[in-house]
Amino acid sequence: MIEKIKSLSRDTLIYGMNTVIGRFLGFFLVPFYTNKFSPDDYGIITIIYSYIAILNVFFSAGLESGFMKFYSSPESGSKKQNFSNPLEIVLLNSFFLSILIYFFSDDLTTVFQVSGSYSYLIKYSALILFFDTIVLIPFAFLRINNKAFKFSGIKIVNITVNVILNVILISFFNFGIEAVFISNLIASIITLIMLFPVIKENFTFGFNKELIKELLKFSIPYIPAGISANLIQIIDRPVLKYLTDDKTVGIYTANYKLGIFMLLIVSMFEFAWRPFFLNNAREPDAKEIFSKVMTLFISAAGFIFLVISFFISDIVELKLPYNFNLIGKAYWSGLNIVPVILFSYLLYGIYINLMAGIQIEKKTKYLPLITGTAAFVNITSNFILIPEYSYMGAAVATLLSYFVMMAGIYYFAQKYYYIKYEFSKIGFAFVYIIGLSAIAIYLHYSGNLNFIFKIILISAYLLLIHFSKIINLKSLRNIFG
Questions:
Q1: Where are the domains of the chain?
Q2: How many CA atoms lie within 13 A of 33 on its CB side?
Q3: Within 13 A of 462's CA, how many CA atoms are on the CB side?
Q4: What is the radius of gyration, based on Cα positions, of the chain?
Q5: From CA 147, how far away is CA 471, in angstroms rounded?
């Protein structure tokens, strides 16, 4: 079991290299945008990208997950057919949808909640969606074949090109917000060129009807599930826009993005986790391994949550080159939502862990119910909470919806693929996380939460985790040694 977890940790660290470097480069754009653009302009960028995220679901149609499931354990057709058929479907679908969006961009400005003068940004969005979608299967191929270094390298190139072009176009050529979309489009095209050898090597023409039938049966539920999941992540911004203004959306989004520090952990884990559990599902000790992974994940994520929550104000006040801050001073009023977003992502990480049972047993039909219920909770909570609590209401709505997602997938995953999780250890970890956070809140409002107390509280968490034997340090040395 140790060797299996060691393999997962190694792949997680490799994907982590990509994720940390990539997110760091990408996150550089947050202080760059918030120091270059007004909250109103940044709000427009945010709104359009929110709808791009929703449309991504229709473009991909869940076929990335379908490909990984059937390629890892083929039930019909050759390996090349298992690669080519989902790619062909994605290509045809994304081409058709891109054409519609591109030529009807003038009519879609109302849907995108922007003025008619920004229809050209919707045209850019259609092209971005097309190129980003057709690389999904090649990227998934690299993951399922444990090509983590190649995957990471291409991702880093994509983000680096995007960031550099943003800086050049905005700082040296005085472009406006269109630079964001132009840079993204060029980076996406370069990514496709880099992945073309993978496509050429594995592609074959023709359709396997039986494979396509099973592929669509598995993948189609990801469309409503993906829509709901994306709504949870981005619907708060259109609702904020509707109930408040562009400035509030900009402040909320800039602080929401500070949740990147937890998202890094979840993302680097997710990249390694899906191919890991698909490739190891038939191992005799698979469920024991998956249980141990859950405990390790929650313990590590809890540490990240406490560190960032306690030090977020200190971090954003640090001076960066060119007199920048991590986010511009005009956005600091929203910093209190950051711990809520961090904890939401922690719950999302548990959801990702629990996804193993659903995919292994091919019970994806329940995903729309799980995420749909969570999306309903999110939308309802946003409309109830935002008028009273502004962007804090939106943050709490996000937390509630991720809790519902976590609870829902736990029910169905355990029903069809029961795993005996280490509930006593997980329970104590959450008690420590919540208890120490409560102490920090009390010290903050009493004016006594200084640097020393923050260090003491974080050290207390590590000591409690160790002496409660939630994590065995000897095992950790074997895993990471």
A1: 1-21+220-481, 62-218
A2: 28
A3: 9
A4: 22
A5: 30
Give the H/E segment covering residue 433.
helix 423-445
Is residue 169 over pLDDT 90?
yes
323 — pLDDT class (breaks 50, 70, 90): low
Q: Residue 324 — φ and ψ, nearest 5°?
A: -85, 160
What CA–CA distance (Å, rounded) separates 32 from 36? 6
Which two tokens mark 50?
Answer: 């929110």
* Count of C-beta atoms within a 10 Å radius of residue 22: 23
The 3-class secondary structure across 167-178, one letter per residue, is HHHHHHCCCCCH
Nearest Cα to Cα of residue 360 among 416, 431, 284: 416
Q: CB atoms < 10 A from the CB of 71, how many? A: 21
pLDDT band at 374 (very low <50, low <70, confident <90, very high): very high
Residue 97 neighbours by CB under 8 Å, 6+ apart: 55, 58, 59, 126, 129
Q: Where are the alpha helices (DSSP H) in 146-221?
A: 148-167, 178-202, 209-219
The rounded distance, in Å, linking the Cα atoms of 306 and 463 is: 14
- DSSP string over 346-399: HHHHHHHHHHHHHHHTT-GGGHHHHHHHHHHHHHHHHHHHHHHHHHHHHHHHHH
Q: How far apart are CA 66 and CA 146, in angstroms?
A: 17
Beta carbons within 10 angstroms of residue 92's beta carbon: 10
pTM of the model: 0.71
Q: Which structure tokens are listed for 293?
A: 């992974």
* Cα–Cα distance for residue pair 148/437, rounded to 1 Å: 36
